[in-house]
Prior knowledge:
Keywords: Metal-binding, Molybdenum, Oxidoreductase
Bound molecules: protoporphyrin IX containing FE
Cofactor: Mo-molybdopterin
Strand content: 15-25%
Number of strands: 32
Pfam families: Cyt-b5, Mo-co_dimer, Oxidored_molyb
Largest sheet: 5 strands, mixed
Organism: Durusdinium trenchii
InterPro entries: Cyt_B5-like_heme/steroid-bd, Cyt_B5-like_heme/steroid_sf, Ig_E-set, MoCF_OxRdtse_dimer, Mopterin_OxRdtase_euk, OxRdtase_Mopterin-bd_dom, OxRdtase_Mopterin-bd_sf
Distance between the termini: 30 Å
Amino acid sequence: MRSSLARLAPAVARLRVEGRRSSSWQLGAGALAGSAIGAAALCESKTTLGSPVATNREVPRDQDLRIIGLEELRAHNNMDDGLWISYHGHVYDVTHFARIHPGGPGRIQMAGGSDLQKYFDVYHVHPDVSKFLDRTCLLGRLTAADAKRSYEETIFGNPYEDEPPRDLQQTIAKAPRWANLMGPYLLDSFRTPLRGFYVRNHFPVPSWEDVENDYEFEVSVPGATRSFKLKDLRALPQATVEATLICGGAALYPRYLHRTENRESWEQKEFPRHEVNNNFWGSHAVWTGVKCRDVLRLCGLDVDALALGEKPMPAKYLRLTGHDADETGASFGVTIPLEKAIDPFGDVLLATTMNGSTLPADHGYPVRVLVPGFAGVRNCKWLAKMELSDELHSSHVDTHTDEVIYPPNMNFEDHVAKASFTGQAVKRAGRWEGDQDNEVFRVMEMPVHSSVLVPELHSVVGKEAIAEVLKEGLEVKGIALGGGGHRIARVDVSIDGGKSYIPADLDDHGMEKVHKRNYHWSWYWWSKKVPLSEEMKHQLLAGQSLTLQVVSRAMTEHGNTQPSRQDAVSLYNLVGNICNYQTHTPAALTCLYMFLLTFFHGVVLPLCDSCYQASNAQLGLVGSCDITRLATLSQRLLASHDPRHSIYIDPRSTTPTDRKS
Ligand code: HEM
């Protein structure tokens, strides 16, 4: 296999993490001193640092901060002595945060004693995290000269230099690759064109010089281990499954909402994240490959007797490992319930094609496990290994704490502060071991979900189109997915922020005929022209502008539905994964002519949300989507959009042929 690890191997002194090759990219001060790290070491370590993280404290002024020397910073490069980092001249103790870092503890440990910005230059998933760090773990500051040295002397290469060529999508992050099509363009074709299919990678994409000979994966069942090459898969019966894949964080906007102390509402704290338009992190394809149960049967597992309950299950889970690995050498790995893998109707495939073409590199070429109805992350790409186990996978991806159901008293402060709440704590049988009184379950199937794709977030309907909206209503469109194979019975839409709803028209593109009961893997499209209320019409006719809040709410055939924003408090996790509550999409109706706004101020929409919000802050404006703000945002701000962390590719600049190809 060609991997970034292998390619960069000769360059550097190696770290050892749990017997694995580690950190080929880092030579900085932190790397040389902080070598004895790893997830296991992390969890067993007893930090000598006193108090846990304080999340809401006052941030001291710079002149009141203790000056910390570079040597002292560099000495704190491990979990025992404390894990410190410098960032924008400040020094932070991230010992506690490392345990719950969504990118994994190993990666932060690599940065121990050195400067964070060097890593963020590579990992575009991070916006500016200063506010969050200032409030949670600020220790002191470096002198200006030391801050410069700390940055310059931290050396970290780029493991993502040889990623496959890509285009067309809205790129949220280049490394690891996170990208998708702009919301409305998802509705161009029921099966998403491969070039537009959403990508949510965790590590660099692996590749093979000679895939026929070099690529293989291993399957372990009790008493037998067997290797498969591509030709072995081709010799088995091929199956076809029509399925939508959806990311655990499908509704990226708004995520990172944290349970507040009084638990009555959700509040957006400064936890770092990229906000994007009302995109849906999901796409649809027809997949072919070999049924996972057929491969397990070939290895000796009596899948039919197990599925019928005639024999006891030999294990709870099927662990899936990918050929991709992070820069500490840790592989990607997830688990799925064994009963799903052997379910004759579960449709778990070892997929080799999408929409009739070979899997693209970004989607797991040459073999990816398709687990319909489950969160995208469970659909392991670049399959390396399948094994039966009673334990979750030991990888960070499987044990991290963002796809679990927490006790009702869990909140952001506890999550960030409590050392016992580590990803490793959820490893046994998917239960939470950190809290004696409560159990925490790992979510595998997606809950019911819907997204508004038209109108786009913050879009503006100008005077040119108002007459039609007054007559016909506002056109609202989107998608819905039952999750876990459940059929959608209804999607309700609202344009007044959820005060009143009407049912939308559903379109499943004939999938109803394909699917069996409770095996509805495909998304539904829905649309409606929602009439304006008399009050809204009156306002518009009086020449005033209106800001509407467009909301959708899907319901499955079981009556399960999406919670309101207030009720979403029952679903907490740090990054808002699996949060399926009804999101609000602001859209403005104005009696001003769009072409005049365009002429005088430059069209600013669409703009990626992180920069949009930055512009907002810059202008000191509040509220979303009012005409004053639209008019004030200018071409200058569009030009200041930061392409380094969030590259906006305007889909309008591509031809319709491009989009559909
Ligand atoms: C204290 C410093 C750090 C903070 C506050 C931080 C914060 C975060 C957050 C909030 C995310 C989730 C992003 C999202 O889901 O939108 C994330 C993901 C990630 N972080 Fe960090 N991070 C830090 C340090 C680092 C370092 C030093 C590295 C690498 C050497 C790193 C690598 C990553 C990666 C690769 C991901 C994506 C993981 C995935 O694929 O899900 N982070 N980080």
